Amino acid sequence: MAQTRVIDPREDLDGLGKQVLNQLKKVQNPDISLPVRTLTNIFFDENTKLIALGDKVSHRTYLNVAHTRKFMQTLMVAAECKKLLNQKQHTTTSIRDLYYILKRTLPGTEENTFEEQEESDPLIEDIEAAMNTLRENLHLHAEQKGSLVGPLFLREPKFNTEADCSKLGSSGYGIPSICEPDTVELISSDADFVLVVEKDAVWNRLNEDRFWKKHKCLVITGKGQPDRGTRRMINRLHKELKLPIYVATDADAWGYYIYSVIKQGSINLSFVSDRLGTPEAKFVGLTTQDVIKFNIPKNVTIKLNEGDKKRIQELMNYMWFKPKEWQHELKNMLQVGYKLELESLSNKDIRFITEKYLPEKISKKDFLP
Question: Helix, strand, or coil here: 318?
């Protein structure tokens, strides 16, 4: 799988502009070639154990009425990225700001260049994939989402600040959207592993109970589907500090997919799987099989709906869910007909998850691959 470059993408942005200009000079239909970022053009790389992008490309042309608006929008995003990169200082802006910067009404019409941010965000990813670069290299960042707590010392060179993540109180360390080595330096940690939990509420319980101190670990949450900054932090903690990664999500198809995104990368961002995926991650819970193992009351389970069942079937067909352990769990979920949330463990005791469930599963290495 090709490694994503981290060099200055200005030359490639210039090349895109010159390509379109030359096509116009030759009275040709302007054409932009872009990698196809859908399930039809991804594959599971058995060597890297990551989701990888295939070779299929699509063409976005100006004179195709179905493409004209998106063609214009793509060039607007590319031009603004180039403008941002030309700033004298290392100026960054949010993807939300970019949307508003580019939103305007076309002269002589009532039509706007962009109506919703959902139009501009995928175009940023198109440019990343086409130029084999990263959003961070385009000086763009998203909303900060993840939190971290535990024995980790780090430094943020841009602000000349250092932090001991074991001394940041109830909120922990807010993982920045841009989490590259030049923005966040990982200095040292004496943790034995990293525990990633799906829910912010569960992270708060683990922090309040000082789970990270008792078990000498780092605890991270992405507050649902983790953002790119959080996934990059997880990737770096494993690669740079050699820390094992354990993931705990709800026992449902959506939680299991969150785990797979942390482990193998995502379909939509398959072009950066090498930086966002951590193939060595292990799943530590929750599963439907734990209901019997830990005597969890059936009344805290949630009946599967048709959407759940459909999603489970989809997961069973993904190559990265083909290991027999995962097939067994997914089949068991369909058979028992229910799912359950991590918070349901509180029915046994408010600290059951910190004092019994997680310690026992981690000590016994009761993981799914």
Answer: coil
pTM: 0.90
**Predicted confidence (pLDDT) per residue in 19-46, tens digit:** 999 999 999 999 999 999 988 999 999 9
Is residue 368 included in any domain, yes or no? Answer: no
Tokens representing 260 are: 């797979």
CB-neighbour burial class of residue 31 (10 A; exposed 0-12, middle 13-18, buried 19+): middle
Residues 62 and 189 in one domain: no
Q: Which domain holds residue 137?
A: 10-141
Q: Which is nearest to 174 in space by CA: 236, 97, 230, 231?
A: 230
| pLDDT digit string, tens, across residues 279-306 | 999 999 899 999 999 999 999 999 999 9
Task: Give the model confidence (pLDDT) of 234-272 as tens digits.
Answer: 999 999 999 999 999 999 999 999 999 999 999 889 999
Is the separation of the CB atoms in 104 and 35 below 8 Å?
Answer: no
Res 5: pLDDT = 47
Same domain, 178 and 286: yes
Question: Strand 173-174 and strand 147-149: pairing?
Answer: antiparallel
Q: How many CB atoms lie within 10 A of CB 29?
A: 12
Q: Of all residues in the chain, what percent are helix, strand and coil, respectively (each to 5)? A: 45, 20, 35
- Whether 62 is catalytic is no
List the catalytic residue out of 100, 257, 338, 357.
Answer: 100
Q: Is residue 3 part of a domain?
A: no
Identify residue 291 by its one-letter amino acid code. Answer: V
Q: Residue 3 corresponds to which tokens in the numbers above?
A: 């490694």
Shared domain for 181 and 204, answered yes or no, is yes
Would residue 1 count as lying in a domain? Answer: no
- Helix segments in the chain, DSSP class H: 10-25, 68-85, 95-102, 117-131, 200-208, 211-214, 228-241, 253-264, 273-276, 290-293, 306-317, 324-336, 352, 358-363
